[in-house]
Automatic annotation (TrEMBL):
<protein>
    <submittedName>
        <fullName>Uncharacterized protein</fullName>
    </submittedName>
</protein>
Length: 61
């Protein structure tokens, strides 16, 4: 039946959108970890050469 095929495709699209949302979250977490590593590498004691939150915000866009 044609309507069943349409409904199946709609469900597949919804599933893919949800999966991409989860994938985006994982990429965001990985980006945050990379920014934290960069921050710790280029900061010395109390002297911050790189602001972690600013860097993350700029790269996230």
């Amino acid at each position: 039946n044609y309507m069943n095929l349409v409904m199946m495709q709609i469900q597949r699209v919804k599933w893919r959108v949800n999966a991409l949302g989860s994938f985006e979250f994982l990429l965001c977490m990985e980006l945050r970890e990379c920014c934290a590593t960069f921050h710790s590498t280029f900061s010395h004691g109390d002297s911050l050469y790189v602001n972690l939150n600013d860097l993350f915000s700029e790269l996230k866009v």
